[in-house]
Structures are given as C-alpha cells and as structure tokens.
Amino acid sequence: MLDIKPILSALRRSKVGAILLLLQVALTTAIVSNAIFMISQNLSYLREDTGYPQQEIFSFVVMTFGKDIDLDQQAELDETMIRNIPGVVNSTLSQAIPLSGGGSSASVRLKPLPETSKEGHLAYFYGDENALETFGVKLIEGRNFRPEEVIFSNNFQDNGPTTIIVSKALAQSMFDKGAALGEFIYVEGRALEIIGIVDVMESAWPRADDSGTTGIIPFIHAQNYQHFLVRTEASERANVMNIIEEKMLQAYNKRVIINVEGLDESKDAYDSSDVLMMRMLIVLVVVLILVTALGILGLTQFNISKRTKQIGTRRALGARKSAIVRYFLVENALVCAVGLVIGSFGAVFLGKALMQAYSIDALTLNYVIFTAFFIFVMSLLAVVVPARRAASISPSIATRSI
Amino acid sequence: MMLKMHDINKVYQTDSVQTYALRDFSLEVNEGEFIAVTGPSGSGKTTFLNMAGLLETFTSGQYTLDGIDVGELSDNQRADLRNQKIGFIFQGFNLIPDLNIFENVEVPLRYRGVSSKERKRSVEACLEQVGLASRAKHLPQQLSGGQQQRVAIARALVGKPRFLLADEPTGNLDSLMARQVMELLEEINRNGSTIVMVTHDPDLARRVPRNIQVVDGQLADLTLYQGQPEIDSSCVVERPSEVGL
C-alpha cells in the first residue's frame, strides 16, 4: 500500500522543501538532458570514420626562400625522394591538409553559368596521381588519375584539369542514386569529368554539415609555401617524421620545414575546443547530478530529523520499518515525478532555444526520457540511506516528552 | 489474562555502568481492568509503559500479551501486534501536524491494510464517539488541547484494540479538559477495554480501580482495588470511601 493520498496531503501542507526539490529536479533534468545530448552528438562525431588512415599520414609545410629552383620540378624531386625513404607508402603535394580546419571549397554545378542548374558544395584537395594512395581513401568506382591528367600550372581556369575524383557523398548529393561516374561537374567554371568515386573522404572541416562532399583535383600549383602529405606504414610514421626535415634540407637547403604533424594530431587540434566543451559538459552533468542527489539526501535527512517524533509515533501505531522506508521513497518519488515532468518540458524548450541559437541538432526525446529515468532512479537511491535510518528510529521515541 | 510480566529486567548498559530501568518486574493485568501506574520521576513508569506497549525490548524475563509470548517476536511481528492489539494515548497527543483529523485517526488502519470504505466507516464512528465528527477536516493545530487528546483517543480506539496504554493522558490539559478525557477513558473501560494509565496525578489515580506504584524500577505496592477478586490479595487494600470525584 503506497498511501499516496496522505503523503500528498502532507506535502500540500509543507510545500517549501518540496517545491525547492521539485525545481532542482526540473532544472537538472532540463540541463542534463541537453548536455547529455550534446555530449553524445560530440562523441558520435569524434568516432565518425573520416575515411583516412590517420595514424599512417602526416603532413608538413615547406617554406622556400631560395630563388634558384623551379618549384614544380623541385616538388616532383621532393616527392620522389620522400617515396624512397624506408617505410613511406606514398606522398603528394597539396594545397590543404584534410581534417585540419584549413582548406579550399567551391560551389559545384551540373551546368555552367549562367544556365540554371542544381548546385552543391565541394571541399577539394589538389594532388597528383599519388594523392589517392597517400590519402588512403577507398576507391569504390572508376579509376585513379593517370600521370598525364595531372596539370602543373598556376592558372586553374585557363590551364586547369579536366578530371576529378569525388566522394560518394558528393555523387549522391548531385546525381540521382549517386550515378556520377563519367558525368561532368562544373567547378570554378571548369568542366571536370568524374573518373572515380571514393567511399568516405572528409573535408578540412569535419565538423561542417557538408564535410563529406569532397573531391581530389589533379592539379599542382607549386608555391613558396606548400603542404606535403606523406603516408607511411603505421609503425614507421614517427621515424619518418623525425627525419623528414633533415631529408628535405639535404635535397635543397634554402627552405624551412615546419608543422610536421600527424593527421590524427591535426584533427585533435581541430577538435580541441569541442573536446574541451564536451569535458566541461561532462563536469557540469556530474556536478548537477551530485548536487541534486545531495539536495535530495539533505532534504530527506532534514525531514527525518524534523519528524523524529512523528516517525516514532507511526512505528508505535504499527508501522513496520519497511512502511517508513516506503513512505519516504513514495514522498520523494511524487515530488521528483512532478519535477521530472516539468523538467522534461523544460528540456525540450531549452533544446529548441539552443538549436535556434547555435544551429545544433534538435534534442531527441529519448535523451529526455533516459535522463528523467536516470534522475528518478538516482533520487530513489539518494533517499534509501536516510529512509532506512528513519526506519530505525525506535517507537519508544513516541513516549519521550523531549 | 491480558498482560502478564514475570521478572522483567531492562538494563541500559554503557561501557562501565549498568543501569536497571526495571528490575525483576512482575505484574498481571486481567482483561477489562483499568490500572493507574504511578511513581516518582525516573522510577521506571515510562520504561514499563514501553515494555507493555512493545515499544522497547526487555533484557530478561517473560512477557505474555493476550496469550502471546512477545519475547521472541521479530520487529515486524511486534509492529503488527502493536497495531492489532494495543491503542496508545500519549501525553503530547503525538498527532501528525500535516494530516487532518480524519487522516490522523485512520493511520493505524492504513498500516493494517484496511480498505478505504471500511476505514471511512471506522474513523467516522470513532470521531463520533469522541464528539469530533464535525472537525474531521481540521488540522490538529486548529483544535484545543482537549480536542487533540480526544482525537488521539479516537486514533487509539479506531483499530478496536483490546488493550489501551495511556501515558499521562491528561498531563497537558487543564482540569476541565482532564476530567472530560478521564470520563471518556472510563466509558471506554466500561465497554470492555483493558486500560493501563501512567499518571503523576494522585487525584486521577484515585479514580482508577487499581493502582500500582513503580519505584526504582520495581513494583512497590498495589494500593487501590475495587471488584477485581482475581488480583493477588497480598497486593490489595481497600479503596478509601472518601476517595473519588
């Protein structure tokens, strides 16, 4: 027998503590639901497959100050030299590093301007016929670039490439059923034939909604400041990274090698603010839950000390210990249930506000339900210890005059 | 026999000191008796009441309540026995301030698992008996001390216990209220309930057919007696004719 009616009557007549607890539970539910949702979103993003074997790839920047070389020719020499280092799988020059937060993107169309056409977004990397293997992305349709398709130039519009390898996401975004192989897309006014489709290949901005619509363009524009990407056997990457500066300077010494960094490290740096936010949210969730649990525990303890005589009297009148424990559990459950209902509505409203303010995904109800259930169970656990202590109050307390 | 205590000892033990709250305490109370327990402060009256009401366990001895040996009962069994056989009336009334009069009176019935309909009938009958049917929705603090004690009596009676334990039932009442409460207890006793009442008030004790006195945790004397021939005659004296209200 749960005795809900007299408990409700008692709660109605001493509202303050109950209302404070109810508000605390509601606030905790609203905040924790959204925080857990954001943490979960973040975790699923961090676990997402980027398409790259990040542990096998590293990049570095070359700043050339010597004026006595042909940069295109030196780039080819450098690539050949790097490929000959033991443990290196392949290497390519590129204008951007995947997953690093810095890169290039453009609109993509199915027809040239000014014709009306479906438009999409393309994040692209320049590279030669070695880029596909260096990136380590999986070709699922078509073929790699042929050496003659790679254009060394400084003018993309007039003397640019004619082919492109795109990601499956781009193919699906631009063509029905993703049937893109052999089709043409227009980038910066140039028609590029899709000769290959790769599975997953994230852009330089993996956080972005359209980060998956990417492509590799066979174009090399060697400059004084340029990026190299190197893929090695996983166990050899650290060794190669250690000697790459020395090898590059041996090949030509009027330059500086900087930012030698693993692709996983580049992504970690890109994600650092998100990871920090996630950790802060985890701390917030833990603190809020602890404070709520302590609040419930404290309030129950206070109620028990206030009602010692009453508990003794109830025991004298025939209440078993279990009835006393049940009384406090039911009382707490009633207050928490109301708090959880209010908090659940609050969570949905807060989720909508956050979605509008920060363009994050809409909070899904299962997070609210999970949080509410968790807080409910936690609140019951927080009551058990003081309630058991209350049950151990002797019935003889009823006959004491003090 | 409603209550039979034989050589009951209650010892409070600290690291170095043993304190006897009751020592070799023996008492028999027949069904339908009304007994007043008197004695100086600290004599063991309340300890006796706690033992009799199963509110505390005793250290040694034997106690039979309505034929049940309570010495070996579990905590739950003691709670059930309190609920079913004993009605308590406390000096401070011990009403639950957050519950109204009706809810206060029905508390023992809730612990007994009585149906809502049956509870309502019993509570209304008891409130009628103590003259407070019209105050069922009031909170305890909205009633006078005498009314509160009558509510406490209704609560003690609602489960139809055969044994009532009253701890200074008039201790917090003025003389008029005390008399009303006492008359109510006498009426209850006439209806067949056994009552053991702890009191400091000698005038009140004189109204009761049988008195016992507790001194230093022991039964000192049975002083007053009227019409209870099965009581040990060595403990019985004539009730003075001038005593009474």
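qc> Chain A touches chain B at residues 1, 3, 6, 9-10, 13-14, 309-310, 313-323, 394-396, 398-401 (CB under 8 Å).
qc> done
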